[in-house]
């Protein structure tokens, strides 16, 4: 169990807001800024940014490898936010603080809290996603529903979720797009076969996307964009010497759609884990022909 205090970078939301039983978004608190400033002096000699946008975790079980366990807790929160909607939300410092044991006083106490770890996690590229991650009161219920699906499931151990998450932290747009495209492949083409991959990618993708985001033109309405994504992915991996022109409207729309598709399919797999297997997608698709 942990409490997360989240003045995240590029995030606009009503505060304080309880996200779930473990997490609350708060506005900036002066004493938290003092904790961050003190921790920065103690643990970092040089930093690329001032600690203006930070994620503070309190009352967390961070026994053992502190940095690793704290990172898991923080990444789980960020993953849930990104699965709910697109946006450049991130933090440039993570500070984990736990109250000292009863009667205990050490030189590490900072305003009654013990500073355990401090580091940053940046988002470099904002093409195709809103610069501000904006939440309104109407977002709170559906966001809590998504966080309920992700809580304590160690989702980043799965390649599809890991590629989706890491795409935000790629400094180059082409690499970010490739992470999204590979995440789609992780879901749509995981049956072990190496033949007709592009066909399977588009055919299965059309079916599952029509389930979660019906197209006015039917399942086939998704085919054009899926073909573009796979063609661009293959060009980058196999043949293209130069990156696409990501400044063009068409390319940015494809980039944004690649992320949207991954988000929609990942949430579907959380709601019904059977869709993690591409063989199950084929079975469900065949039922529609009977």
Structure description:
The protein is α/β, with parallel strands linked by helices and 290 residues long. It folds into 2 domains: 3-150, no CATH class; 158-287, no CATH class. The chain has 9 helices and 9 strands. The protein has helices at 30-43, 66-84, 140-150, 159-167, 173-188, 197-212, 223-239, 249-271, 278-287, and strands spanning 3-5, 11-12, 17-20, 23-25, 54-58, 91-98, 109-110, 113-121, 133-134. The strands form 2 sheets. A 7-stranded mixed beta sheet has the order 3-4-1-5-6-8-7, with helices on both faces. It has a two-stranded parallel ribbon with strand order 2-9. Strand 5, helix 2 (66-84) and strand 6 form a beta-alpha-beta unit. Helix 2 (66-84) packs across helix 3. The chain is globular.
The oligomeric status of these chains comes to: single chain
What is the approximate shape?
A: globular
Helical coverage, percent range: 40-55%
Major beta-sheet overview = 7 strands, mixed
Summarize model confidence as the mean pLDDT: 77
- Secondary-structure-derived class: alpha/beta
Proportion of β residues? 5-15%
The tally of beta strands, per DSSP, is 9
Topology:
Layout: E1 3-5, E2 11-12, E3 17-20, E4 23-25, H1 30-43, E5 54-58, H2 66-84, E6 91-98, E7 109-110, E8 113-121, E9 133-134, H3 140-150, H4 159-167, H5 173-188, H6 197-212, H7 223-239, H8 249-271, H9 278-287
Parallel strand pairs: 1-4, 2-9, 5-6
Antiparallel strand pairs: 1-5, 3-4, 6-8, 7-8
Helix pairs in contact: 2-3, 4-5, 5-7, 5-8, 6-7, 7-8
At a glance:
The protein is an alpha/beta fold and 290 residues long. The protein has helices at 30-43, 66-84, 140-150, 159-167, 173-188, 197-212, 223-239, 249-271, 278-287, and strands spanning 3-5, 11-12, 17-20, 23-25, 54-58, 91-98, 109-110, 113-121, 133-134. Strands 3-4-1-5-6-8-7 form a seven-stranded mixed beta sheet, with helices on both faces. It has a two-stranded parallel sheet with strand order 2-9.
